TrEMBL record:
UniProt keyword annotations, A-Z: DNA-binding, Nucleus, Transcription, Transcription regulation
Keyword Metal-binding belongs to the record: no
Keyword Hydrolase among UniProt keywords: no
Entry GO MF terms: DNA-binding transcription factor activity; sequence-specific DNA binding
Residues of the WRKY domain: 128-185
Compartments where found: Nucleus
Stretch list, region Disordered: 81-124
Annotated protein name in UniProt: WRKY domain-containing protein
Length: 296
DNA sequence: GAAATTTGACCCGG
DNA sequence: CCGGGTCAAATTTC
């Protein structure tokens, strides 16, 4: 479930969807404000000093997201339409057999992997969605400053999952990703189960540390060289060290688990107890991001 | 050495 | 021919 999700190719009810997203974001912002207040009222050990900055960053992200959402339905829907408009017509759903032939005679592989029309378009501050994707292409798009990244489900080979997606940074707000999904996951494999599940009992906040405006990045977290298209790449050890640093000292609980193989996927989950409320920090995905969960 | 990413080449529809 | 989507060899990373 994406934090920010707007629009649909069918244009069924963009206004309602946008409204719901706005309310969710406003709710998230309020919770972030509460978290910040809690953090400010607590006497923190030096190692936790970055948490206040983190909370402030959450608030700023929420404010910016709200601004974008409320910018106007017209702009919003036109952006979604533009994102969907580049798709080929749905009539090409039949598999273009062996669309590519190399010099050494075409491969018979592939088959039936042609994407249908976009199933949905989402705008999110992180390109992470709980699934494991494998990038298979990148393309400069005409009349667009940002390249479009092409991903397919990493279990395509194992499970024959045909889900694909395109990711492109928003023209309006580079910290937002416009993600267009094609096909459904037939693999049913998700990452970080139990953390990605949103049962509605807690608020979720997604912080993208890869934001271009890194001037106010929490000092506890790391810097990294830019990655093509702005999606940053970090090794597992780097991310895990950042989590350890963030959770160092004090009443740490849970620690780190779920480290994936670096390069394939970096997945770590850290948990801490703080000021009466439990704070979880999860870091996962090839685009470095963290997810904060405040329980109670 | 294995697995993922990069990136130029290739395919196809308009 | 152009532009978007995909492939796959080369490269990168661990």
């Amino acid at each position: 479930m994406a934090l920010i999700a707007t629009g649909a190719t069918s244009a069924a009810s963009p206004a309602a969807a946008s409204m719901a997203a706005s309310e969710l974001m406003a709710q998230g912002r309020n919770s972030a404000a509460v978290l910040e207040t809690i953090l400010q009222g607590a006497s923190l050990p030096p190692a936790h000093g970055g948490l206040q900055l983190l909370a402030a960053e959450i608030l700023r992200c929420c404010d910016r997201a709200l601004t974008v959402m409320r910018a106007g339905e017209a702009a919003e829907s036109s952006a979604a339409a533009a994102a969907a408009g580049v798709k080929r017509k749905p009539a090409t759903t039949t598999a273009p057999a062996n669309r590519k032939r190399r010099a050494n005679g075409g491969s018979s592989g592939g088959g039936a992997s042609s994407p249908a029309a976009a199933t949905r378009v989402e705008r999110s501050r992180t390109s992470e969605d709980g699934y494991l994707w494998r990038k298979y292409g990148q393309k400069e798009i005409k009349n667009s400053k940002r390249p479009r990244l092409y991903f397919r489900c990493s279990y395509k080979d194992d499970d024959g999952c045909t889900a694909t997606r395109h990711v492109q940074q928003s023209e309006d707000d580079p910290s937002l990703y416009v993600i267009t999904y094609f096909g459904d996951h037939t693999c049913s494999r998700k990452l970080a189960a139990g953390v990605d599940e949103d049962d509605g009992t807690f608020q979720k906040f997604v912080i993208n540390f890869g934001s271009a405006s890194a001037s106010s990045s929490p000092p506890l977290l790391y810097e990294s060289s830019s990655y093509s298209s702005g999606i940053r790449r970090e090794t597992t050890s780097t991310i895990v060290e950042a989590v350890k640093l963030l959770l160092a000292g004090g009443s740490r609980r849970g620690g780190i688990r779920g480290e994936g193989r670096a390069g394939r996927i970096a997945s770590g989950v850290g948990g801490g107890e703080f000021a009466g409320g439990r704070l979880f920090l999860c870091v996962s995905g090839t685009g470095a991001f963290a997810r904060l969960l405040e329980l109670g």
